[in-house]
Structures are given as structure tokens and as C-alpha cells.
Amino acid sequence: LCLQLIERSPKTLPRSMVYVSIITFVMGASIHLVGDSVNHRLIFSGYQHHLSVRENPIIRNLKPETLIDSFELLYYYDEYLGHSMWYIPFFLILFIYFTGCFTPVAEESRMPVAALLLVGPSSLYYWYLVTEGQIFILYIFTFFAMMALVMHQKRKGLVLDSNGLFLFYSFIITLLLIAVWVAWLWNDKILRKKYPGVIYIPEPWAFYTLHMSNLQPAKESF
After folding, report:
1. Where do transmembrane segments lie in this chain (predicted)?
2. What is this structure's pTM?
């Protein structure tokens, strides 16, 4: 699928660049999936995603203490290395695909009804990628690059076709969803501690372990 997206580019890319992008994408996704398979099992065992690795009760009491370093290394592979290797090529491929979504024919710049209905699910998907993957900077730079390309192509008399409009609208709605998500959790002190940087975008899994995981035992006891 990634190769099909790249082939839509109006310019022929070097094969080495294409191969490196796809290989890096696959390796990053694999690292992420392996890390997640372990982390999700930890969640079922009581791991609290809104806390750091060393602050988690089930990790803090591990013996020997060197095991904690192993779990921190796993967290690094999953949340940082895996995400970077996965998402950087992915958004690069999306932008390359976007460069081929322009047409001089105004009639082709219309989205069918089915595409309009799918914009919502598509936006939710990108919202989850950005928030759970903690890749807002990568997303927003890609979005700005898309906006700059649209304005540049407009001067040439080119407009987005239906495929380009679908991706562009998905990114716009994604930005709105992120803004609503951040505004909703803006005053959450625990999540603020987990994400102390200038860019505050909590992960959905952190929100789940903090506010939702305790609801299930309560319902069962009821």
C-alpha cells in the first residue's frame, strides 16, 4: 500500500529512498507492536500508563532492581525509537502521495458522498496516531507543508482532487479533535505531571488507566 501511495508522486523518486523508507517503516512498526504486546499485558496486570515506568507499583517492587532498567529500555524502544521509525516514513509517504493529488479540472475537485462519510473515521484514526504516538510536531509540520503546497499549486491553476481533499479535510478535523482533547484534559494535574513539556497532549491509554480502568471493578462489584 505504501508503494502504491509513493507511485502517485508526480516526480520519480530514487529507488534507494523508497526502499529505505519502506524498510524503516516496517522495522518501526514491528518494534512498536512487540513493545505494545508486552505493555498491554502489563496493563492487565495493573500497570498504570499515566505513571512513569519507575513510579508504577508493579515495576517499583521488582527484584533485582536491574529489571526496572530492562522495562525502561522496552518503553524507550516502544514509545520513542519504534514510533520515530514508524511515523516519520509514514507521514513522509503521505506527503509524497499528497503531491500527486492535484488537477487542473475543477469537476474532479469534488468528493463523493461515500468519501464525505469516511472523513470522520479517517480523522479519528489520525487523532489516535497523533495522541497515542506523541507525534504532534511531526503531524503539524506535515500539515503546514500540505497547506503551503496547496497555496503554491493554486498559483499554477491546480486544485486538489477528491483524494487530496479527503486527506486534507481529515488532517483539518484531526487538528480540531486534538484541540478539543487537550482543552478537555487541560486541568488534569496527574496527566500534566506525566506530560510536563510545552506541548501537552495526553495519550488515550494514559487517560484510560487513570480514569476508566477503575470503572470495570466497580461495575463488577455492583
Report:
1. 17-35, 86-106, 113-129, 135-152, 164-186
2. 0.83
